[in-house]
Amino acid sequence: MSIAHASPMTGNLFRNRFYQTILISNLFLQIGIWVRNFAILMFVTDQTNNDPMAISLISVVEFAPIFVFSFIGGAFADRWRPKRTMIWCDFLSSASVLIVLVTLLYGSWEMIYLATFVSAILSQFSQPSVMKLFKQHVHPDQLQQGMALFQSLMAIFMIMGPALGIFLYHQFGIHISIAVMGVAFLLSALVLFRLPADEVEATTSEQKTLNLRKELADGFRYVWKSPVLKILAGAFAIAGFSVGIIQTLGLFVVTERLGQPKEFLQYLMMVNGVAMLVGGAIIMTLAKKVSPQVLLAFGMSVSALCIAGMGLSKSIPLTLALQFINGLTMPAIQIGINTLILQWTEQSYVGRVNGVLSPMFMGMMVIMMSLSGVIKANFPLVEIYCVSGIIMLLGAVILVPIFKHKADPAFASGSPEKAAV
User: Fold this and answer.
1) How many domains would you assign to the chain?
2) Largest CA distance in the chain
3) pTM recorded for the entire structure
4) CA of 76: how far to CAs of 126, 136, 202, 317, 359, in Å?
5) Which residue range is the domain that position 341 belongs to?
6) Can you give 334-401 as a three-state secondary structure string?
7) Cα 79 to Cα 70: distance, rounded to the nearest angstrom
8) Over the stretch 298-343, which tens digit does the pLDDT of each residue have?
């Protein structure tokens, strides 16, 4: 395994060619994703006159493929060359957007959902490859810091992304917005050619004949044998249940609880993004002092309180304040999760472990998102948000047993059986 032998200083991390390339590629990906998210949301809202089912369908087509294909994508990420996989995924995302654009010009507007659907599928082959390359090219001492910097870039787009998507849609229309998406994905693919060449791993004849079903089973066994990964899977499922209930209801918090037009949603997202940027910077400075277990449990606990508070609030300043606090904790959750996965998973299993854990979250989230329209029709928004907060708090509670486990620096190169120690 090749790992960049740099000291855990920020400057050395930025001199890492792999890390530079991933940040630049992600810059273009974030442009494409946020233009997609908000231009399509505004377009569908206008086309359907705020139909909750049509709006929730956007999230369903985005997250349902993640649930289905993360199993498969994770297994293939461990078998395919990660650089080649990521480049092809971005090229195909760009091509699919071009097809959607042509269809929009000559066909039905409902084809807009296809752009989200295809890119969501391809991301499940690309994202595990990124994690695998992190394992190869970033020093273990820099993993948490690297994740914090990576998260900060996404936080910047939480600030700019909604405004960018809404601006493009209102100024230039859906066709130009879709074209910007395609160009962004294409530029990401071109940047990825800067990545170091893929390592060609030696494989035995037995490894070459392994089938997908067996590899998926190996991934499940690996997670089941690890006390940390097993608990993390449970927390993932509970968090997905909590987030799924409210995932598509943010627009109704804006219109019903705050009495604002739908465009006000971008300001909630921007506040969240500023907070995530600040939170990522704080965690970057604490990366060597705070364990990922603490980050994750703390983040989920605070998020639970903020979710319930946003449901109860009818005050714009209070809702914005709760959104800011919630945003501060999001980097702690995401960095804690990713660091725990990388610390407790050997390189050859990173893709499959991702493929097992992600569906625990996404599966529950997709199920609850699919039901959120029905839930919204039968229960008050306040009750829905309070129940979501209580469930998230339960997810934080079940993390308690992992505090007694401390990752061994030599663990990542060990066998699956070591995960049970």
Assistant:
1) 1
2) 64
3) 0.63
4) 10, 17, 16, 47, 15
5) 13-195+212-420
6) HHHHHHHHHHCCCHHHHHHHHHHHHHHHHHHHHHHHHHHHHHHHHCCHHHHHHHHHHHHHHHHHCCHH
7) 14
8) 989 999 999 999 999 999 999 999 999 988 888 788 778 878 887 8
